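Aim 2 progress update. The chain analyzed this quarter is reproduced below.
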Amino acid sequence: MARNPKTTGEHDGAGDTPHATRLPPREAIVEALMRLAAEQPWNDIEIGDIAREAGVSLAEFRECYPSKGAVLGGFARMIDKQVLDGASDDLDDEPTRERLFDVLMRRLDAMDPYKPALRRIVFALRGDPLSLAALNQVALNSQRFMLASAGISTEGPLGRVKLQGVVIAFARVTEVWLEDEDPALARTMAALDREIRNGERFMERAEDVRRLTAPFRALAQSLAEGGRRRRRRGRNDDRNEDEGNPLGGDPAAAI
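Predicted structure tokens:
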């Protein structure tokens, strides 16, 4: 994999420019992990290897990240920043679909220098449910900002559904992108367009279901509130009885 033009400092390869600028430790660690992941299996990479590659001590590594996996979270935030920094208002008048397509394609563009590393990482973590659950939370945080950049709300009754749907859709598109060697990314763009359109149809159906079930939800909420009021009255009655009982209402207190 071609090195990022930014260097990590102390342990740079012979191909780096002699006057390159040293990265901040957090970014240096991310870049080091991605270089190592491009060259060897994920499970063979130790935190000591990353620290040496980044030119930082283990103490500095620990100050920045608690684990190797946490560095992937740092990578996601680095990509988030690149995408958000590159945002413009050129597409403000375009349909929502076009705005989201643009944001997610810019995210893939930002990820492109790390494609060999990501290919190995995705393969290694595919069968690890705990890691996938942790990465899903990282992806939720990232996509919240991607949707905001596209002018799409993630609040309201269906906000979480919308957000998780984009995470799943982007994961599917990423699988295609990792195997797409065409510089024009025709397969990737087709997959992204398809996923966005499927997501639109799903959200339309979800909104219809939400409207249809609104009366039932209101009735259930009313019944639940009535039950809570009755329970509060019952607790108040119990407290009144306890006040006249020297044992505090608990028979075992006499023992």
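Residues 1-20, 246-255 have pLDDT under 50 and may be disordered. Residues 217 and 223 are 10 Å apart (CA to CA). These observations will guide the mutagenesis experiments scheduled for the next reporting period.
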